[in-house]
Amino acid sequence: MENIPISQIFRFQISDCRFSDFKSQIADSQISNFRLQISDFRSQILRFQISDFRFLISD
Length: 59
Hints:
By secondary structure, the chain is mainly alpha-helical. The protein is 68% helix and 0% strand.
């Protein structure tokens, strides 16, 4: 997973986990819960790219 583009990772995970209806406010307050829901993600990756994730779901 090291070299997978950020957009691909989050597009796959969001659609797979049905988080496409998330809004930035929800993601910001529920980020710890979201981390637990995505078993494919490692906490390091999620924390490192959380800003990119917020931009994707706010769109």
